[in-house]
Amino acid sequence: MKLLSKRNRRREIWPWLVSLLLAALIVGGGLFSWYHWRSPSLTPLYTLTVEAPPQALQALEQWAQSADPLKRDRARYLLAVESLSQQQPQAALQWLQNLEQTYRPMAAPILLLRAEAYRQQGDNRRAKETWEQLLRDYGNEPEAAVALLSLNQPQRAIARFPQHPAVVNYVAQQLEKNPDQLPYLKLVARYGLFLKEYGTYLAILRQRYANQLTPADWAAIAFGYWEKMQYAPAAAAYAKAPPTPLNLYRVGRGRELSEDIPGAIAGYQALINRFPHSSEAALAQLRLARLAKTPAERLPLLAKCLQLATQNQAPAIAANALLARYQAYQELGNTKGAQQSQQQLFKTYPQSSAAAELRWQLAQGAAQKRQWSQAQQWVSEILKWNPESELAPRAAFWQGKWQGEAGQPQGQRQTWQLVIERYPHTYYAWRAASLLKKPVGTFTTLRQQRPSVAGDRQTILPLGTGSPTLRELYLLRQSQEAWQRWQWEFHNRVTPTAAEQLTDGLIRLGVGEYLDGIFMLQNLFTRAGSEPEVARFFAPIRRDVRFWYALYPLPYWELVEKWSLARNLNPLLVMALIRQESRFEKEIRSVVGATGLMQLMPETAAWIAEKLNLEGYSLVDPEDNIRLGTWYFDYTHNQYNQNTLLALASYNAGPGNVSQWLERFDIGDSDRFVESIPFPETYGYVKSVLENYWNYWQLYAQP
Q: What CA–CA distance (Å, rounded) separates 513 from 398?
């Protein structure tokens, strides 16, 4: 059951921007200071803070009478939203009266609400006057796009706000009537990634209008295909885009990912020839080396890569080239060459991920020879030079295992305690806590545990960037409106800053785009490992518990709890599995056909449904999928004597493969069994699900 990676979902746009329900709002502290509202004609009345309004209407009404002007204004805005959702326009107008004069960052959204209230009353004249006021006073704000559409001026909206989702949706509606409208197709290609029929519009452009497209048009098409992970058409489009280093790199990489190796080699070489002084050229040279068939063929390519990376000041690429050169010399039996590469890597790039990987290889080699002191020394080097690398918690955990085998129980306990304290969100922290007999569950007791899950403890992590209006909408949990404004504000989509990436991830999560939202947040760890500026920005965020609440949300919790308990399963364990399988995307399908939240194959689902006498189910229906998936997860546990490690391995790789592994590898030491799993996907899957569980348990389980 495979996770289909990054995918955009359609966002349904409500043109009048009225929320149907009052979102749950939780009080949170401040990681970033909020911007002051600045305008040539306005003076800030107060400083925006990150204190979110309460959830209950009664408490909101109390806030609306507060002496604190910010509390009062926030409450009045939300009470107006609630009134409109209940079709009570007169109450909404009362809450909104003169509100734009004091709640200045929200002036344009306030006018949209007021126009909607008049529209609900049937007072079209006042609604029209309010939209015109919005255009007059806030014509450069994105809410003006909605006003223009409401005033039946779509061409002005398209000209001024082409990236606004309401405008994109209007254009898509026109294309549904007549798809042969080239300007509209170009607009959708550039700004309509969220549309359900986005791929169809790209295909029309390529097939019918290829001769009329500019290089900039091809770049937009290429990026769209790249985001959708359709790498072959992405590479073809990038070949026609402006010949920048990044675009040419993606020509080669797209071909490689679509298994066109000769085309990939040609693409990488074209990049190197045209832009030899770019970091992309160095990376392309590294890709060429990895595509070489023999270590002897790799060595000259790696020498060229190292030269290019050094010239272009690309230390991460240079370090990877040295590691690859070390490995090539090892394969050739050239001990001297391997030692020279090792020394150069450790001397020049001691803090690189490549250096951490080589130290870990050396530690493992020493441990296999039972050279415990040498193995522990290499681990110490990792913890000294590469403490934030992905390998650090794994290395520290295994140092504890080796200390136990070396007869050092006290050192083992100290090392495992260090893992828990230093790397608290990792799979290895859970294993260390489990082996230290802490009440966190073991491989054979996890399914039976029934942690008491607290109510919603989430506190809101402030956005990394964005206008004051965007930040207010986000804080007020007006998720749909925040998402729409962000589409207008977010211009740097191809190479976002860390602050933009954080903001994009948080806003996507707010509208239920869990796959992309989690990806954007998780990818910050990867970027921090190779980009110093990202590392500095991300350092305080990764230590903030609010970031982890965002990274581990609880969608569909009621259904998960219901069917987990019905199957005698630990609900947080099921939630952890769903997060790994589908990222909570209910309609997701893998390349092999696995479908829905728990990624069930249709034939497996049919077999389960027959067992349950269940008819008329749908794998894209969350309850049906969880009902069937929890039955199967219970089944895999029963097959392996309630061992969650084996149940997870079977869920991912199938019982046949697990049976073979049990014959080949000793299950007596579960940690060594995990390390022996020969399928990289299953090896990562087992650890990821259990790491998910550990984080859910830490965040939500009541003591």
A: 37
Residue ranges of the chain that CATH labels 1.25.40.10: 57-160, 360-438
In sequence order, the 6+-apart residues with CB closer than 8 A to the CB of 297 are none
pLDDT for position 459: 75
Beta carbons of 500 and 465 less than 8 angstroms apart: yes
Fold of 57-160: 1.25.40
Residue 411 confidence (pLDDT): 97
Residues of the chain with pLDDT under 70: 1-50, 455-458
CA distances to 279, 307, 385 from 354, in Å:
17, 17, 12
Contact 479, 510 (CB under 8 A): yes
- Quick one: residue 195, left, alpha or beta (phi over 0 = left, psi -120 to 50 = alpha)? beta
| Residue ranges of the chain that CATH labels 1.10.530.10 | 557-700
How far apart are alpha carbons 423 and 419 in whole angstroms?
5
Quote the Cα angle for 614-605-564, to 5°. Answer: 75
Check residue 3 and give its pLDDT: 33
Catalytic: which of 116, 513, 581, 691?
581
Q: Bridge-partner residues for 42, per DSSP? A: 39
Q: Which is nearest to 634 in space by CA: 598, 593, 681?
A: 598
Q: What is the third-level CATH fold of 360-438?
A: 1.25.40
Please name the residues in contact with 337: beta carbons below 8 A apart, sequence gap of 6 or more: 325, 329
- DSSP per-residue string spanning 409-464: HHHHHHHHHHHHHHSTTSHHHHHHHHHTT-SS--TTTTTT----B-S----PPPPS
Helix or strand run (H / E) with residue 207: helix 198-208
Q: What is the dihedral of CA 284, 286, 291, 296, to 10 degrees?
A: 140
Other CB atoms within 10 Å distance of the CB of residue 185: 23
CA 597-601-606 angle, 5° bins: 105
Give me 282's structure tokens: 């160095």
Residues in Cβ contact with 483 at an 8 Å cutoff, skipping those fewer than 6 apart = 11, 165, 507, 508, 510, 511
Spatial distance between the Cα atoms of 189 and 210, rounded to a whole number of angstroms: 13
Q: Kindly report the length of the chain.
A: 703
CA distance 198 to 191: 10
Paired residues of 39 in beta bridges: 42
Assigned token pair, 400:
């504890």
Rounded to whole angstroms, what are the CA distances from 434 to 279, 430, 548, 673, 685? 44, 6, 21, 16, 19
pLDDT tens by residue, 496-550:
999 999 999 999 999 999 999 999 999 999 999 889 999 999 999 999 999 999 9
| Domain 557-700 architecture | Orthogonal Bundle (1.10)
Token look-up 């909408």 returns 473
Catalytic-residue membership of 581: yes
Tell me if 516 sits within 8 A of 7, measured CB to CB. yes
Tokens of 565: 């308990």
Following CA atoms 358, 362, 365, 370 in sequence, which dihedral angle do they give, to the nearest 10 degrees? -150
Q: Which residues lie across from 600 on neighbouring strands?
A: 595
pLDDT of 523 reads 97
Tell me if residue 326 falls in helix, strand or coil. Answer: helix
**Rounded Cα gap, residues 347 and 339, in angstroms:** 12
Structure tokens at 151: 């005033």
Q: Report the first-to-last Cα separation within the chain, whole angstroms.
A: 33
Number of DSSP helices (H) and strands (E) in the chain, helices first: 38, 0
Is residue 111 a contact partner of residue 99, using CB atoms and an 8 Å limit?
A: no
Q: Quote the Cα angle for 518-520-525, to 5°.
A: 95
What is the rounded distance in angstroms from the CA atom of residue 536 to the CA atom of residue 115?
44
Give the per-residue pLDDT at 626. 98
The two structure tokens encoding residue 278: 């770019």
